[in-house]
Amino acid sequence: MGDDPDLAFQVWLENLSPARRQSDARTLDGLFRRATGFDPRLWANGVVGYGAYDYTYASGRSGTWCATGFAPRAAKLSIYILPGYTDFCDILARLGPHTKGKSCVYITRLDRIDPDVLVELIRAGIADLATYWPVRAAP
After folding, report:
1. How many CA atoms within 13 Å lie on the side-chain side of 95?
2. This model's pTM is above 0.85
């Protein structure tokens, strides 16, 4: 695989199981590409990220993280709308069945979610993030 992030993503995707999670990941990849215009990159802890941002907190801690993304966990799909600064209740009300955390949305069944609303949510999250940190293509 070397340093080719596209190949690394494809290998990861082909080895994802069970089959339902692989199918969900393929669908989400298409939605995230459509919403962001960015190619996927694998990040820590099985997160598939789109775009990146560099941050520095008041404490001095700094780093780089994906701008948005997902992780196909065993029980639920985690959709990361980072960094969670804004309340997207109006969009979430139209999304379909989900639960939410501070900066992510958990979905059990992707086939019960409105894909156009998910694209809207991803775009809103990126736009919100960009008001705090510049968003760019991932390295």
Report:
1. 22
2. yes
